[in-house]
Amino acid sequence: MLAMDATGADAGRGGLTTADGKPLKQALATAQSRARRRALLLVLPLLAFIVITFVVPIGQLLFRSVYNDGFSANMPQISAWFRETEPGTEPDEAAYAALAADLAAAAEARSVGVVGTRVNYEMSGTRSLFTAAGRKAGDLKPPFREALLELNGTWGDPQLWGVMRSVSSAYSANFYLAALDLARDANGDIVRAPEGRRIYGMLFLRTLWLSALITGLCLILAYPVAHLLATLPLAKSNLLMILVLLPFWTSLLVRTTSWMVLLQEQGVVNNTMVALGLIGEDGRIQMMYNRTGTIIAMTHILLPFMILPLYSVMRPINPGYVRAARSLGATSWTAFRRVYLPQTLPGIGAGALLVFILAVGYYITPALVGGASGQLISNLIAYHMQDSLNWSLAAALAALLLAGVLILYWLYDRLIGIDKLKLG
Amino acid sequence: MNASRPDSTPDAAFVEFDRVQKSYDGETLVVKDLNLTIARGEFLTMLGPSGSGKTTCLMMLAGFETATHGEIRLAGRPINQVPPHKRGIGMVFQNYALFPHMSVGENLAFPLEVRGMRRAERAAKVARALDMVQMGAFANRRPAQLSGGQQQRIALARALVFDPELVLMDEPLGALDKQLREHMQFEIKALHDRLGITVVYVTHDQGEALTMSDRIAVFNDGRIQQLAPPAELYERPKNSFVAQFIGENNKLPGIIEAFDDKKALVRLATGEVIDATPVNIRARGQQTLVSIRPERVEFKPEMMPPGVHRIAADVLEVVYMGDIFRTRMRVAGSEDFVMKCRNTIGQRRLTPGERIEIAWHPEDARALDPM
């Protein structure tokens, strides 16, 4: 004690020192460095795993959402012309010559399809324009403007030139614009996409709305169950807990298909209702392959993710609080609303956040039971990844989804506080 | 509650348990035939080991448990069917049960708020209740920011803020350290005297019960073993359980040789016959336990008033405890006979192995039924 006081007193200016005069901070760092190195070695494999399987692929995908060199890499000359001229410049003979040369070269290298696809993302129906021109580009004679226009009048379309200018740079925000139902007009200004092609905004809204609805349903169903689990004697609550966890031991596909069996038009539920005379044979309710199917199946699948955080928050709440409230004159409803409910808020927040985030990105269940009206944004991301192969657009959609989730997370942190998040 | 006080009810019966029984499982009775009357303004303590039924009785009075049989009356009105929030009883819980998501002020305002009291009136009452427990400066703190003793005061203030006539306390000082506990005992007692409230206090700490209560009901095995003021309970326990549970006691097993109302002759295991005061003695030849308080035993018989009973003792162990020497001796075959010698100036220090003569007054030796 005395020695410490003494060193503390000398150290008025230069920071604390140990008994032999070394700076205390340095001594502490030396003393701890060995333990730190060992700890680092322990987590190193996990760190490498996360970087290789998580950070790198996600980073690459996000990069793809702003980078696509399908046009610029294969059409160097016309890309150079676009760089040298102002946006909106009328294409001159030099431009057409560069275009013809690039098309010929691309056809030679068998990459004109890639070029056409890239332009086609921005302006549909143009892929064949490029492949057709590619086939004949080698035979074209100057003046190239007339020659190309003779091949197809679309080559003179200012919109096409606008699109080619915008894709001539490998870096572009166009995929984000497309994901937000926006587009660039011939002058490069941002405008709304044509009426019939605005699907993403609607799908984002539907995804958010359905996810919120599913979160709400899960909360309503999970709250009493979690409360029961938390208040029953341990032996009984453990048995119930196994029932709650049972779905985790069953394949997601099995669970989803069993909902199909139950809810389809000739399914168990409809058959029962017909047999009981509740509905007529021709009044069978359509509960599958539409939004209802998505809502029912996803609520069921995500329910445990709501129950568990709620349970973990409710379990330690002392029943004495509600008793105290009642003895102080509160009715059971007031005691619940003013005393019990506020104490479960961290669980409600954690469960809602978890279920909402899972629902927003859910893919397999809506794909199986959603039909057309039950599709979510993730189904479209999958479509662009697997069918249309427009990976950049898929990446942009996914990035927007990620941004949305992060915003929600931030909001949660601001409103409730992430330190209060209790997942179990 | 003030308004509904019927004039016909004598003050002697503010709270009544009338033949109350309670069973949780339908097989065993936790409370067996409880009859208890608590007067208005009384401080009554329910004392007993855990599982003796004292907390169940309190919970039935508060309304959190229903009586299986019998009637509980508050100010003459049967309250068996009245839900807890309509009983108007203040309650202090063992772990305080202060609402963690509310500030101290909000905690105190809660009972007033649910009674529909206006904001200004509420604030005045909360401030007064906080001042009453000397916590006026803490209204904006959260319970978690307070020490155990401070939380205890707030819990007390919350149970009193809506002016209940009856306040129940369920081992309220159990979580506090010894010094704080003694201080709070004093404060609770002072509040009781000042406010004139009726208090039913549950504890398993006999020291607490003795210092605070007007009367103590000693519970064991679902029954009240004895209901008496502290001094009577300590000095004239009615059976062996009470004698053992309240304070320390030396017990010497023996057989009743002869007895009348005032005096019993008891033959101890070593054949010695001693005088004792009979309690619960029914027949000659009956087994008995003679109980003697350690502080009523002396080892200087010549300094005691005449009429004391002398007996030989072997000192086995002397423990220094500061204010006293706790001396364990072999007396009449019993090896844990304890005597407390005060650590006064010039006190003779006994040593183990020493043979001495001890004495007690026959009035302090009580022949009780064996347990």
What key phrases describe this protein's structure?
heterodimer, A: 424 residues, mainly alpha, MetI-like fold, 3 domains, two-stranded antiparallel sheet, disordered N terminus, B: 371 residues, alpha+beta, Rossmann fold, OB fold (Dihydrolipoamide Acetyltransferase, E2P), 2 domains, six-stranded mixed sheet, five-stranded mixed β-barrel, 8 helices, 19 strands, 22% helix, globular
Question: Would you give an account of this structure?
Answer:
The complex is a heterodimer of chains A (424) and B (371). A two-stranded antiparallel sheet of chain A has the order 1-2. Chain A has 19 helices and two strands. In chain A, helix 5 packs antiparallel against helix 6 and helix 18 (377-386) runs antiparallel to helix 19. Chain A is mostly helical and 424 residues long. Chain A is extended. Chain A has helices spanning 2-10, 24-64, 76-84, 93-108, 112-122, 127-136, 144-151, 158-167, 174-179, 200-231, 234-245, 252-263, 268-275, 291-314, 319-327, 332-360, 364-369, 377-386, 391-415, and strands at residues 182-184, 190-192. Helices cover 68% and strands 1% of the residues of chain A. Chain A has three domains: 2-64, no CATH class; 76-197, no CATH class; 200-420, MetI-like (MetI-like fold). Chain B folds into two domains: 11-235, P-loop containing nucleotide triphosphate hydrolases (Rossmann fold, 3-Layer(aba) Sandwich); 251-368, Nucleic acid-binding proteins (OB fold (Dihydrolipoamide Acetyltransferase, E2P)), CATH 2.40.50.140. Helix content of chain B is 22%, strand content 32%. Chain B contains eight helices and 19 strands. In chain B, strand 15 (309-320) and strand 16 form a beta hairpin. Chain B starts with 14 loop residues before the first strand and ends with a strand. Residues 1-10 of chain B have low confidence and may be disordered. Chain A binds chain B through residues 318, 320-321, 323-332, 334-335, 338-339, 342-343, and chain B through 62-64, 83-91, 93-95, 97-101, 110-111, 114-115, 158-159, 162, 168.
